[in-house]
């Protein structure tokens, strides 16, 4: 029984564990060894005090169940644990091996209550949750499968040993087909797998099916306007629509508006698949409309990929996939625009515009405000996307000046 549980958790000895203590510093990496190892001073910080230490990881053959269980646990831990408990995002992975990440949490309980153990006991009843506890004796610290009732035999102790920082941050390893999708089929499959738990998925898939395959011939130019919230996309796209006599489209398209709130509350796998499919519906609209007039698109694949990557990657900009990573490549089956312009303004100006607008922000956008690191990662990811790459436009001058600057670019690049 115990062996099966250990097996379920993967081959632990080949894995590295990463604990994200602080978004501004690198994670703490450790590995496991069956031989006693002296505790490295960096790890003493983690294991040194008298608090109770646990980690928990989520396993399941169903990626939908795994994503939802992870999100539920995150919520549960954040609302139920006392202030004396620290919860950190943690993962276990095989260095630089794609899709090897198992996500979880690390809990440091300094309280005198048994609250964390009570919660872990409930969580552990789920067949997809694996809980480990950490014990220290002198210079040695080991991890063992935690059980609230049966004490684990000493033979399964795994000693903590330092591990080198991985070349690729662990949060970059599972991005493909979990956060960013590179063909319609992969995103489509995710929603198909959710139809039982999210009935709206069927309606979204029906809307995708209804879009006839449209391949774009030599129609009018297609120009995408990208940028963080409040950088002036709406203002500019509406002005361009008028001045170029263009059709204005957006991604996600209007037909997905009734479902957006529902999918925004889902874990990244499902939420990102929804936005990915939105791009394909918008692509079908672009295909048709560009036969008649120039098309301006407010957000498209750059937004989908940049926000998804920046959310998936913990910590600093340095943790993003490397600039030459294939994760920044445009999906081969998604209609390419002729021009992508990225509106940028200083963080101060952006905040001023957000405040002037005074309307509700999405949770993600509210997070941008408090989370400078996240904003920097979104912008950097935007700039790294290739085929087509975006051209950066300084959107801090007046609306009229920004329009003129963009009209000039469009004339040069698209001969409009
Ligand atoms: N060039 C500009 N200069 C000053 N304010 C601007 C400019 N462009 C837009 N704004 C104002 O900033 C706010 C956000 O603009 P908006 O076009 O809605 O951005 P987005 O669509 O990117 O969220 C609005 O109140 C808008 O009037
Ligand atoms: N093409 C798109 C558009 C938006 N999005 C998501 O939608 C969010 C931005 O939506 P928003 O409502 O703030 O956008 P605006 O209405 O401000 O342009 C981002 O956080 C992205 O996660 C996406 O993934 N792909």
TrEMBL record:
Transmembrane segments: none annotated. It is found in: Mitochondrion. One of its GO terms (biological process) is dUDP biosynthetic process. InterPro entries: P-loop_NTPase (IPR027417), Thymidylate_kin-like_dom (IPR039430), Thymidylate_kinase (IPR018094). One of its GO terms (molecular function) is nucleoside diphosphate kinase activity. Its EC number is 2.7.4.14, 2.7.4.9. The keyword Mitochondrion applies. Residues 225-405 form the Thymidylate kinase-like domain. It catalyses: dCMP + ATP = dCDP + ADP; CMP + ATP = CDP + ADP; dTMP + ATP = dTDP + ADP. Pfam families: Thymidylate_kin. It comes from the Eukaryota. Keywords: ATP-binding, Coiled coil, Kinase, Mitochondrion, Nucleotide biosynthesis, Nucleotide-binding, Pyrimidine biosynthesis, Transferase, Transit peptide. One of its GO terms (cellular component) is mitochondrion. PANTHER family: THYMIDYLATE KINASE, UMP-CMP KINASE 2, MITOCHONDRIAL. Belongs to the thymidylate kinase family. This is UMP-CMP kinase 2, mitochondrial.
């Amino acid at each position: 029984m115990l062996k099966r549980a250990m097996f379920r958790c993967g081959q632990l000895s080949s894995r590295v564990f990463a604990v994200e203590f602080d978004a501004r510093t690198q994670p703490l990496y450790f590995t496991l060894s069956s031989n006693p190892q002296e505790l490295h001073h960096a790890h003493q910080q983690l294991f040194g005090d008298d608090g109770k230490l646990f980690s928990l990881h989520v396993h399941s053959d169903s990626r939908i169940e795994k994503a939802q269980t992870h999100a539920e646990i995150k919520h549960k831990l954040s609302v139920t644990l006392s202030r004396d408990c620290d919860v950190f995002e943690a993962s276990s992975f095989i260095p630089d091996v794609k899709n090897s990440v198992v996500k979880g949490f690390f809990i440091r309980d300094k309280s005198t209550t048994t609250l964390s153990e009570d919660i872990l006991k409930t969580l552990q009843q789920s067949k997809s949750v694996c809980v480990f506890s950490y014990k220290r004796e002198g210079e040695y610290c080991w991890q063992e499968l935690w059980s609230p009732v049966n004490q684990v035999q000493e033979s399964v102790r795994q000693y903590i040993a330092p591990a080198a920082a991985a070349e690729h941050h662990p949060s970059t390893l599972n991005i493909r087909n979990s956060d960013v999708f590179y063909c319609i089929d992969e995103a489509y499959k995710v929603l198909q797998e959710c139809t039982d738990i999210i009935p709206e998925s069927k309606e979204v898939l029906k809307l995708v099916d209804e879009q006839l395959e449209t391949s774009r011939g030599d129609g009018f130019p297609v120009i995408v306007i990208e940028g963080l919230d409040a950088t002036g996309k709406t203002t500019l796209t509406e002005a361009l629509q008028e001045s170029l006599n263009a059709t204005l489209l957006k991604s996600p398209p209007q037909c997905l508006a009734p479902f957006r709130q529902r999918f925004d509350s889902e874990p990244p796998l499902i939420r990102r698949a929804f936005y990915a499919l939105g791009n394909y519906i918008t692509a079908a609209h672009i295909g048709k409309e560009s036969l008649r007039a120039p098309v301006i698109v407010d957000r498209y694949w750059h937004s989908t990929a940049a926000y998804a990557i920046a959310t998936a990657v913990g910590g600093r900009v340095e943790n993003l996939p490397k600039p030459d990573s294939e994760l920044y490549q445009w999906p081969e089956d998604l209609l390419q625009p002729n021009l992508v312009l990225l509106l940028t303004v200083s963080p101060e100006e952006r905040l001023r515009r957000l405040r002037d607008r005074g309307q509700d922000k999405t949770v993600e956008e509210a997070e941008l405000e408090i989370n400078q690191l996240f904003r920097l990662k979104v912008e950097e990811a935007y700039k790294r996307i290739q085929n087509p790459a975006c051209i950066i436009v300084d959107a801090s001058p007046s609306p009229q000046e920004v329009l003129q600057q963009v009209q000039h670019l469009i004339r040069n690049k698209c001969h409009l």
